[in-house]
Design brief:
Length: 421
């Protein structure tokens, strides 16, 4: 028994790293650290729990500029809000106002809304790994999120200076007076968002190798894994303007991850990571543009379309000082994350022109540059049969397009255990 105990302790001491981690990437918060390669030991079980939170009033638009939170796709174009919307009833004051407004002559800056608000999120990620034989392993990833948008406010960007039309235009003033009723008529709500629930669950299978037969390096570690992302998260409500899904809005995904690390000087590690996440197409009911002049999240017309969700990918590097101060390890990294443009194929092309529908900046995708900072302390003790790890992290956004500028901070807990009897 003493021999097995000593062997287990030495194993845990040798495999204390910040584990290979799968992360669902989203535009509304900084990406988490992507993780190191998996340890190869047969029958090793690892539990990682990560909890983080962040908030912001700012976003970044398509030119990387910091803007009001809900202006990441540009200002909302309101003077063409009703153009080509099907089934308008011009006997109602709401649709009559929309009809009059859309025939007003265009003027730069006229009829635009800027929307601001505050975004808050808290997230707990649970990752469970089980090594099998010959380097093969399984991973289960379950995120739990709280997403909140509140303090939503609207600013009229129209100028009150000549020439006309301007803010004092009587039709524009009528629109402003009717705006709440217009949204209500088309079953749209601009209230805040507050949801807590699980995100999309992932099940992956992988293979890892820890190669130490080198002359100039301490080791070379490599891990590859692939699997299925299941749409277990709540989907966004198309009748709530600024709603957010808990996952990828009902799409199945097929993640592929690769990670490599090189060890030097018995304490220094340099590593890299790449990930790609394509999605399966699905048909859904959603809001779509009916005019080339429209842009942003506020759209009156709703219909069904085949949605081709843009794939997501990430490339990253990191440096780690392993046990730099006693049992304390320090790590810094950088990642570039990006979502490619999505496309919609409307079912009813008589009502929705595909070229108009797909001209919305909301479909152009996003990208994000993130700095990752981590510190982790392991509490392994002699004659202990288990190896807990605790850490703190910060993920800082340093650039990007069409994202919320939400930095994240929090803590981690990990536990490694070998089932050897």
């Amino acid at each position: 028994m003493k021999k097995r105990t000593t062997s287990l302790i030495m194993l845990l001491l040798s495999c204390c790293n910040i584990g290979f981690a799968w992360d669902n990437l989203h535009f509304y918060r900084a990406s988490f650290f992507f993780g190191e390669p998996r340890f190869e030991r047969q029958a090793l079980t690892t539990l990682n729990v990560r909890a983080g939170a962040g908030s912001t009033h700012k976003g970044r638009d398509g030119c990387t500029r910091k803007v009001c939170l809900l202006d990441i796709f540009g200002p909302q174009v309101m003077f063409k809000l009703g153009e080509n919307v099907p089934y308008k009833d011009l006997t109602t004051p709401e649709d009559a106002t929309l009809q009059l407004l859309e025939i007003e002559p265009a003027r730069n800056g006229f009829g635009l809304f800027s929307y601001g608000g505050k975004f808050k999120t808290a997230e707990v990620d649970i990752q469970l790994y089980q090594n099998l034989v010959k380097g093969f392993f399984l991973e289960l990833y379950l995120p739990i999120r709280k997403l909140e948008i509140n303090d939503i406010n609207c600013l009229d960007l129209s100028s009150d200076c000549p020439p006309c039309p301007n803010r004092n235009n009587p039709i524009w003033q009528s629109f402003l007076n009717q705006y709440t009723n217009i949204l209500s008529k088309y079953n749209l709500c601009q209230d805040g968002v507050n949801h807590t629930g699980i995100g999309d669950t992932s099940l992956l299978a992988g293979w890892t190798v820890n190669y130490e037969q080198t002359e100039d390096l301490d080791f070379i570690d490599f891990t590859i894994e692939a699997g299925v992302l299941f749409p277990t998260g709540r989907k966004a409500n198309p009748d709530i303007i600024f709603d957010l899904p808990q996952g990828y809005n009902g799409h199945y995904g097929f993640p592929l991850n690769m990670s490599v690390a090189f060890g030097l000087y018995e304490w220094f590690t340099f590593g890299g990571h790449v990930m790609v996440l394509p999605f399966k197409n699905r048909t859904e009911e959603l809001r779509m543009k009916t005019s080339t002049a429209q842009n942003g999240a506020i759209m009156l017309a709703k219909g069904c379309a085949d949605v081709h969700h843009g794939s997501i990918w990430q490339a990253a590097v990191y440096l780690k000082a392993d046990h730099a101060i006693r049992n304390l390890s320090l790590l810094t990294g950088y990642s570039y994350s990006s979502e490619r443009a999505s496309t919609l194929a409307p079912i009813n092309t008589a009502l929705f022109d595909p070229s108009i529908v797909n001209s919305n900046d909301m479909l152009r995708g996003w990208n994000m540059h993130t700095i990752h900072l981590l510190a982790e302390f392991d509490f392994l003790k002699e004659c202990s049969l288990w190896g807990p790890r605790f850490g703190v992290f910060g993920n800082i956004i340093v650039g990007g397009k069409r994202i919320f500028n939400t930095n994240m901070a929090g803590g981690t807990f990990g536990l490694d255990l070998v089932w050897s009897f």
